[in-house]
Design goal:
197 residues, mainly beta, 7-stranded antiparallel sheet
Length: 197
Protein backbone atom coordinates (compact mmCIF):
# COMPACT_ATOMS: atom_id res chain seq x y z
CA UNK A 1 0.00 0.00 0.00
CA UNK A 2 1.25 3.49 -0.84
CA UNK A 3 0.05 6.83 0.46
CA UNK A 4 0.57 10.50 -0.36
CA UNK A 5 -0.41 13.82 1.22
CA UNK A 6 -1.29 16.89 -0.83
CA UNK A 7 -1.98 20.48 0.27
CA UNK A 8 -1.98 24.01 -1.09
CA UNK A 9 -1.18 27.08 0.94
CA UNK A 10 -4.01 27.89 3.32
CA UNK A 11 -5.88 24.63 2.63
CA UNK A 12 -6.47 21.51 4.69
CA UNK A 13 -4.21 18.62 3.77
CA UNK A 14 -5.80 15.72 1.90
CA UNK A 15 -4.38 12.23 2.29
CA UNK A 16 -4.90 9.49 -0.27
CA UNK A 17 -3.93 5.84 -0.14
CA UNK A 18 -4.19 2.97 -2.57
CA UNK A 19 -3.34 -0.73 -2.68
CA UNK A 20 -1.51 -2.26 -5.61
CA UNK A 21 -2.77 -5.80 -6.23
CA UNK A 22 -0.15 -8.39 -7.03
CA UNK A 23 -0.40 -9.89 -10.50
CA UNK A 24 -1.24 -13.60 -10.59
CA UNK A 25 1.21 -15.52 -12.74
CA UNK A 26 -0.49 -18.93 -12.55
CA UNK A 27 -1.71 -21.51 -10.04
CA UNK A 28 -0.22 -24.45 -8.15
CA UNK A 29 -1.74 -27.28 -6.15
CA UNK A 30 -2.13 -26.47 -2.46
CA UNK A 31 -3.81 -29.84 -1.86
CA UNK A 32 -4.30 -32.80 -4.19
CA UNK A 33 -6.32 -35.99 -3.81
CA UNK A 34 -5.48 -38.92 -6.12
CA UNK A 35 -6.95 -41.57 -3.79
CA UNK A 36 -3.77 -43.57 -3.49
CA UNK A 37 -4.30 -43.20 0.30
CA UNK A 38 -7.88 -44.48 0.63
CA UNK A 39 -10.74 -41.94 0.95
CA UNK A 40 -8.37 -39.34 2.41
CA UNK A 41 -11.08 -37.53 4.40
CA UNK A 42 -13.91 -37.58 1.83
CA UNK A 43 -17.30 -38.81 3.02
CA UNK A 44 -20.82 -39.04 1.63
CA UNK A 45 -23.39 -36.38 2.45
CA UNK A 46 -26.99 -35.65 1.47
CA UNK A 47 -29.02 -36.27 -1.67
CA UNK A 48 -31.89 -34.62 -3.53
CA UNK A 49 -34.18 -36.76 -5.72
CA UNK A 50 -31.36 -39.33 -5.98
CA UNK A 51 -30.07 -42.15 -3.76
CA UNK A 52 -26.73 -43.36 -2.51
CA UNK A 53 -25.84 -47.00 -3.03
CA UNK A 54 -23.94 -49.16 -0.57
CA UNK A 55 -21.21 -48.33 0.04
CA UNK A 56 -21.82 -44.74 -0.95
CA UNK A 57 -18.11 -44.01 -1.48
CA UNK A 58 -15.15 -46.29 -2.04
CA UNK A 59 -11.74 -46.24 -3.67
CA UNK A 60 -11.65 -48.28 -6.86
CA UNK A 61 -9.10 -49.29 -9.50
CA UNK A 62 -11.78 -49.73 -12.19
CA UNK A 63 -10.17 -46.97 -14.29
CA UNK A 64 -6.75 -48.64 -14.08
CA UNK A 65 -5.54 -46.54 -11.15
CA UNK A 66 -7.11 -45.41 -7.86
CA UNK A 67 -10.12 -43.09 -8.10
CA UNK A 68 -13.06 -42.19 -5.88
CA UNK A 69 -16.11 -44.26 -6.82
CA UNK A 70 -19.56 -42.82 -6.06
CA UNK A 71 -22.31 -45.43 -6.06
CA UNK A 72 -25.56 -43.68 -6.86
CA UNK A 73 -29.00 -44.15 -8.35
CA UNK A 74 -30.78 -41.56 -10.53
CA UNK A 75 -34.33 -41.94 -11.83
CA UNK A 76 -33.87 -39.60 -14.79
CA UNK A 77 -37.27 -38.01 -14.10
CA UNK A 78 -35.91 -34.63 -12.98
CA UNK A 79 -33.48 -31.97 -14.13
CA UNK A 80 -31.90 -31.80 -10.65
CA UNK A 81 -30.99 -35.14 -9.00
CA UNK A 82 -28.10 -34.64 -6.60
CA UNK A 83 -25.60 -36.53 -4.49
CA UNK A 84 -23.02 -34.68 -2.40
CA UNK A 85 -19.75 -35.57 -0.74
CA UNK A 86 -17.44 -33.50 1.41
CA UNK A 87 -14.05 -33.14 3.07
CA UNK A 88 -13.95 -31.26 6.36
CA UNK A 89 -10.15 -31.05 6.52
CA UNK A 90 -8.87 -29.67 3.21
CA UNK A 91 -5.22 -28.67 3.67
CA UNK A 92 -4.06 -25.03 3.20
CA UNK A 93 -7.67 -24.15 2.51
CA UNK A 94 -7.59 -20.40 3.16
CA UNK A 95 -5.09 -19.89 0.31
CA UNK A 96 -7.09 -21.55 -2.46
CA UNK A 97 -8.79 -19.61 -5.26
CA UNK A 98 -9.68 -22.43 -7.67
CA UNK A 99 -10.29 -26.16 -7.63
CA UNK A 100 -10.73 -28.80 -10.29
CA UNK A 101 -11.39 -32.50 -10.74
CA UNK A 102 -12.36 -35.03 -13.40
CA UNK A 103 -15.58 -37.05 -13.62
CA UNK A 104 -15.96 -40.37 -15.46
CA UNK A 105 -19.35 -42.00 -16.11
CA UNK A 106 -19.86 -45.28 -17.97
CA UNK A 107 -20.90 -44.50 -21.55
CA UNK A 108 -23.85 -46.90 -21.30
CA UNK A 109 -25.95 -43.81 -20.53
CA UNK A 110 -26.62 -41.46 -23.44
CA UNK A 111 -29.69 -39.40 -22.50
CA UNK A 112 -29.53 -36.36 -20.26
CA UNK A 113 -26.51 -34.60 -18.85
CA UNK A 114 -24.69 -33.29 -15.78
CA UNK A 115 -24.49 -29.96 -13.95
CA UNK A 116 -22.03 -30.31 -11.03
CA UNK A 117 -21.17 -27.51 -8.63
CA UNK A 118 -19.43 -27.07 -5.27
CA UNK A 119 -20.10 -25.44 -1.90
CA UNK A 120 -18.30 -24.25 1.20
CA UNK A 121 -19.41 -26.06 4.34
CA UNK A 122 -18.81 -22.91 6.41
CA UNK A 123 -21.74 -20.70 5.42
CA UNK A 124 -23.02 -23.07 2.70
CA UNK A 125 -21.77 -20.76 -0.04
CA UNK A 126 -22.53 -22.33 -3.44
CA UNK A 127 -19.85 -22.13 -6.12
CA UNK A 128 -20.10 -22.61 -9.88
CA UNK A 129 -23.81 -23.44 -10.09
CA UNK A 130 -24.63 -24.18 -13.76
CA UNK A 131 -21.21 -22.98 -14.94
CA UNK A 132 -20.78 -26.53 -16.26
CA UNK A 133 -24.11 -27.80 -17.61
CA UNK A 134 -23.65 -30.20 -20.51
CA UNK A 135 -25.48 -33.02 -22.22
CA UNK A 136 -23.66 -36.32 -22.66
CA UNK A 137 -23.54 -35.86 -26.44
CA UNK A 138 -21.33 -32.80 -25.84
CA UNK A 139 -18.83 -34.56 -23.54
CA UNK A 140 -15.51 -36.17 -24.41
CA UNK A 141 -15.27 -39.98 -24.46
CA UNK A 142 -12.36 -41.89 -22.93
CA UNK A 143 -11.46 -45.60 -23.04
CA UNK A 144 -9.96 -46.78 -19.77
CA UNK A 145 -9.17 -50.32 -18.71
CA UNK A 146 -11.29 -51.79 -21.51
CA UNK A 147 -14.42 -49.66 -21.00
CA UNK A 148 -15.79 -46.44 -22.50
CA UNK A 149 -16.58 -43.47 -20.27
CA UNK A 150 -17.94 -39.97 -20.58
CA UNK A 151 -15.21 -37.64 -19.29
CA UNK A 152 -15.72 -34.14 -17.88
CA UNK A 153 -13.05 -31.83 -16.46
CA UNK A 154 -14.73 -29.58 -13.89
CA UNK A 155 -13.18 -26.27 -12.85
CA UNK A 156 -14.58 -24.21 -9.98
CA UNK A 157 -13.65 -20.57 -9.36
CA UNK A 158 -13.49 -20.13 -5.57
CA UNK A 159 -12.10 -16.58 -5.62
CA UNK A 160 -11.72 -15.15 -2.11
CA UNK A 161 -14.66 -17.15 -0.71
CA UNK A 162 -12.42 -19.57 1.23
CA UNK A 163 -10.51 -16.87 3.14
CA UNK A 164 -11.22 -17.09 6.85
CA UNK A 165 -13.48 -20.13 6.40
CA UNK A 166 -13.25 -23.58 7.93
CA UNK A 167 -11.58 -26.12 5.58
CA UNK A 168 -14.90 -27.79 4.77
CA UNK A 169 -15.71 -28.35 1.09
CA UNK A 170 -18.59 -30.06 -0.74
CA UNK A 171 -18.51 -31.47 -4.25
CA UNK A 172 -22.05 -31.76 -5.57
CA UNK A 173 -22.85 -34.04 -8.51
CA UNK A 174 -26.14 -33.13 -10.18
CA UNK A 175 -27.76 -35.21 -12.92
CA UNK A 176 -30.07 -33.64 -15.49
CA UNK A 177 -32.60 -36.27 -16.70
CA UNK A 178 -29.92 -38.95 -16.42
CA UNK A 179 -31.46 -42.39 -15.87
CA UNK A 180 -28.57 -44.32 -14.34
CA UNK A 181 -27.89 -46.78 -11.57
CA UNK A 182 -24.17 -47.31 -11.22
CA UNK A 183 -20.75 -45.86 -10.51
CA UNK A 184 -19.53 -42.33 -11.05
CA UNK A 185 -15.78 -41.87 -10.72
CA UNK A 186 -14.04 -38.73 -9.47
CA UNK A 187 -10.28 -38.37 -9.85
CA UNK A 188 -7.48 -35.85 -9.45
CA UNK A 189 -9.19 -33.40 -7.11
CA UNK A 190 -6.95 -30.35 -6.81
CA UNK A 191 -7.26 -27.20 -4.71
CA UNK A 192 -5.22 -24.43 -6.33
CA UNK A 193 -3.54 -21.36 -4.90
CA UNK A 194 -2.23 -18.44 -6.95
CA UNK A 195 1.42 -17.86 -7.83
CA UNK A 196 2.25 -14.15 -7.79
CA UNK A 197 4.87 -12.36 -9.84
Amino acid sequence: MASATFAKAGEVKAKFSFTHDKKINGYEAAAKYDFSNDLDGWESEGTWQAKWGSPALEVSNDLGEPALKLNGSFSGANDWEEIKFRNMGVKKFSNIQKMDYTIYILAIVSEGGIRPYAALGDGRVKLGVDKFHKQFKDLEKASLNGKDYWKAKIEIDVGDAAKGKKPDFFICFVADHMKYDGPIYVDDIEFLRPIYE
